[in-house]
Amino acid sequence: MHHLSVALITFACVFCSALLGLYLRTLLPQHHLDDDSIGVVKLATGLIATMAALVLGLLISSAKSSLDMVDASVTRDAANVVLLDRVLVRYGPQTQEIRDMLKQIVARAAGQIASGDPAQLKALQGTEALERAEYLERKLESLSPQNDAQRRLQARAIEMVNDAIAVREMGVLQAAGSTPTALLVTLVLWLCIIFGAFGLFTPANTTVVIALFLGALSTSIAIFLILEMNTPLDGMVTVSMSPMHQALAVLGR
């Protein structure tokens, strides 16, 4: 389900729970609203609010870590590509075909990520993308170094390709993360209980309704950001592709 749809459903559930609490207040007998009853409900609501705050903070921290890891992966991959290209330049003109192939692979991957198309992003995890990288590695292995310097450069280039493949796979796998559905449903349920209790023991007026509306809106925005940061290659919150574009501008020079 689209992240915005999940956020809107969350907002509707939480805000409607608050309105339901305001409505139920008008139906409950007065002795259900005395100080003793309110005190018990406040204690229970406080416990649930504490658990909800902990889970919300955990999800935000986890989502931000996921976003940062993918962003670092893109930056490191771009740097490795530039360094690999310079190593091939130092090896000699025999590597021109490999350099052209490297630029094509990087340009294709950058275009797939920048497109935001789920089908294109899924192709990053496919065997075709991995085969292209492995073919590049085989081309490097097929080089015939003529001296010790070229042998060292060939070994270094092969090692850098292996590192780049590992970093890319790690980034793709990290970007494919998702928020556990059960945890998300539990969090929304807790928020509904909390806002329902807010409405139940608060006299209805315009100020109260606006406050509950803003609270429900804030929690739904938080959940939306969590879902977006857990998928950092598509959506509204994505990693910056500037390092990769800068690397492409340098390749082939």
Helix count?
A: 9
Give unreliable regions as ranges: none
Number of strands: 0
Distance from N terminus to C terminus (CA atoms, Å) equals 44 Å
Spell the H/E element sequence: HHHHHHHHH
Structural class by secondary-structure content: mainly alpha
Pfam families: Bestrophin-like
InterPro entries: DUF4239 (IPR025333)
Keywords: Membrane, Plasmid, Transmembrane, Transmembrane helix
Organism: Paraburkholderia phymatum (strain DSM 17167 / CIP 108236 / LMG 21445 / STM815) (Burkholderia phymatum)
What is the fold's blueprint, element by element?
Elements (H helix, E strand, L loop, with lengths): L2 H25 L7 H57 L4 H20 L2 H6 L3 H15 L6 H28 L5 H20 L5 H24 L12 H9 L3
Helix pairs in contact: 1-7, 1-8, 2-3, 2-6, 2-7, 2-8, 2-9, 3-5, 5-6, 7-8
Keywords:
mainly alpha; 9 helices; rod-shaped; transmembrane; membrane; plasmid; DUF4239
Describe the structure.
With about 250 residues, this protein is mostly helical. The chain has one domain (about 5-25, about 35-250). The chain is about 80% helix and about 0% strand. The protein is built from nine helices and no strands. Helix 2 packs antiparallel against helix 7 and helix 2 packs parallel to helix 9. The two termini are about 45 Å apart. The mean pLDDT is about 80. This is DUF4239 domain-containing protein. Keywords: Membrane, Plasmid, Transmembrane, Transmembrane helix.
